[in-house]
Amino acid sequence: MSEIVFAKPDPYDFLETDALLSEEETLLRDTVRDYVEKEINPHVADWWDEGVIPHAELAKAFGDLGMLGMHLEGYGCAGTSATAYGLACMELEAGDSGIRSFVSVQGSLVMFPIWKFGSEEQKQTWLPRMASGEIIGCFGLTEADSGSDPASMRTSAKRDGSDWLINGSKMWITNGSIADVAIVWARTDDGIRGFIVPSDTKGFAAPEIKKKASLRASVTSELILDDVRVPDEFLLPAVSSMRGPLSCLNEARFGIAFGAVGAARSCYESALAYAGEREQFNQPIGSFQLTQRKLVEMMVSVQRGTLVALHLGRRKDNGELTPEQVSFGKFDNVRNALEVARTARSILGANGITLEYPVFRHMANLETVFTYEGTNEIHTLVMGQAITGLNAFT
Amino acid sequence: MNVVVCVKQIPDPATPYKLEEGTSWLIRPEDQVLDDTDRYGVEMGLQLAQESEGTVTLVSMGPTGNAQGIRQALAMGADRAIMIEDDGLRGSDALTTARVLAAAISSEAFDLVITGTESTDGYSGVVPQMIAELLGAPALTYATKVEVGDGVVTIHRQTAAGYDVVTSSTPAVVSVTAGVVEPRYPTFKGIMDAKKKPIENKTMSDLGVENRLAQEVAKITNAPEREAGRRIEDEGDAHTEIVALLEDRKVI
């Protein structure tokens, strides 16, 4: 039996979870971390403040790195493991949830359905240019009146000769106004179908939703489809049910389970540094028992979330991950990240509400992450049904 | 054009260095990283080689460990690596290092050898010039800009006042400063390809060199604590005093 080793724990990786990564995963993770520290962190508070991001430059840079559709095989995609994709999401979201959302949408919600359900011609046409960042995509599923219940969507597509006519509107669409192409899910006579709609198609408009108090370093839009005519070749051939959009969401939610931990880690590290420097009553506030309790709770939460995310990553790479397990990760890691952000903000006091520190920005972002891609309630009911065998949705 | 880039794996500068008792040799952990200043040389080599569809070969001396640092440079795009690892090289000085690297380089067909100006763990700052001498090649040092064409290499050499323009024929040895070019981030494809790229391991006997230490570390002392700065109260003339101070230190 091995004995316990007495060594000084690393405050930033208490359980030494880094040891669970392969050399290649470590290098990839470090590359994204380095990129975020140099290219995102110095600017992101300004982007957030102004509500504007340099989307074309970011898309190009992400494309050059190989980040877009990174865990897909072929068509100019890097073909990494799912765990590596998760780790990239974790580092991006340590920068900002909006930046991670940008990459999630492109890779998991737009490239993934084309890769999974598209024709060979569609893959050749779209994927290489999306992997390089030349083209930005968006994903239109949610509607103003159809959020948690997407099957109630009103947007419809009807055959008109060899074409399709799409009518309806979509809401809360990340990257909508900057997208060159949209994956639009619509009701048809033979079920829910996905369409590849170039944004310059007549009748397509994507006004941006302004005045947000969250995800400000991210473009959020409405999509308006008014007699949008697309040829049959723009229909995704291989899926005709809610399985299509839901399988995309599972991909994105997997990335969020990792990403949320990144945001939480950033908050914890900010609070730990602050607690060591900030003095009150002639001592660092980190010396107070109440503050130490907060710091330890945050550290434990971040480490636990990392372990859950890595476990899901390994299962996904082994082809064993279930949607219910993805719900576990999204449900638990996001709610804990939000709690960590709020706790960090309390340690930073008034400084915590400024954009000089990342915590309030993360906290405001995580309020969105908490409800998008399946609300906490929906993931609860998914798991509730899984353990009881009883469906609470209807 | 074929470029050899000398790189070094060093202990992560974010963790405190440990020295071996008695010898004062740096203890090198299994996990080492690419010396950050080497990324500039690798990038320079990649740019020059890519212009002419040439190759970039990395040459490195020291314990391979898990080769994580070398893989960083391979992930940036270098084609292959030669690692010289030998227990007999522990504690080697700058001249031994240069002899080992020069011996490894001399068996390669190269147009240019690129190095950093000094390593971030040893800081001797003399290895590039020694390699050049041992290879019988011109040494062009402290380059802030490098251009190669028609068998001629031209560099801008950093000086206190500005820069010198220095040229020589190739093959030549060029040491580059941090900032000569902006190092690229390794791409994800590059990272995944890196593990398939060949790393050739060599020993002293393969190269026919011996470790004849010409120097020993006599003593190690901690750097003195930094003294507190001086505060200049502005009574209307602080700017002249500050300008005088800066001029005195040749900052401006």
How would you portray this structure in words?
The complex is a heterodimer of chains A (394) and B (252). In chain A, the strands form 3 sheets. In chain A, strands 2-3-7-6 form a 4-stranded antiparallel β-sheet, with helices on one face. In chain A, strands 1-4-5 form a 3-stranded mixed β-sheet, with helices on one face. Chain A has helices at residues 23-50, 55-65, 82-95, 97-117, 120-131, 243-277, 289-317, 323-348, 359-371, 376-388; strands at 137-140, 156-160, 163-174, 181-188, 191-198, 204-205, 220-231, 279-280, 283-284. Chain A is an alpha+beta fold. Chain A has 10 helices and 9 strands. Chain A is 51% helix and 14% strand. In chain A, a hairpin with a 2-residue loop joins strand 2 and strand 3. The longest helix of chain A is centred in the middle third of the chain and has 35 residues, at 243-277. Chain A has 3 domains: 17-131, Acyl-CoA dehydrogenase/oxidase, N-terminal domain (Butyryl-Coa Dehydrogenase, subunit A, domain 1, Orthogonal Bundle), CATH 1.10.540; 137-234, Butyryl-CoA Dehydrogenase, subunit A, domain 2, CATH 2.40.110.10; 243-388, Butyryl-CoA Dehydrogenase, subunit A, domain 3 (Up-down Bundle). Chain B has one domain: HUPs (Rossmann fold, 3-Layer(aba) Sandwich), CATH 3.40.50. Chain B is built from 7 helices and 11 strands. In chain B, helix 2 (68-76) crosses helix 5 (188-194) and helix 3 crosses helix 4. Chain B is globular, with a radius of gyration of 20 Å. The A-B interface holds A 23-24, 26-28, 31, 34-35, 64-67, 70, 78-80, 84 and B 66, 68, 71-72, 75, 185-192, 194-195.
SSE diagram, text form:
The complex is a heterodimer of chains A (394) and B (252).
Chain A: H1 23-50, H2 55-65, H3 82-95, H4 97-117, H5 120-131, E1 137-140, E2 156-160, E3 163-174, E4 181-188, E5 191-198, E6 204-205, E7 220-231, H6 243-277, E8 279-280, E9 283-284, H7 289-317, H8 323-348, H9 359-371, H10 376-388
Chain B: E1 3-6, E2 9-10, E3 33-34, H1 38-51, E4 56-61, H2 68-76, E5 80-84, H3 94-106, E6 112-115, H4 127-135, E7 139-149, E8 152-158, E9 163-169, E10 172-176, H5 188-194, E11 199-202, H6 204-207, H7 238-248
Parallel strand pairs in B: 1-4, 1-6, 4-5, 5-11, 6-10, 7-10
Antiparallel strand pairs in B: 2-3, 7-8, 8-9
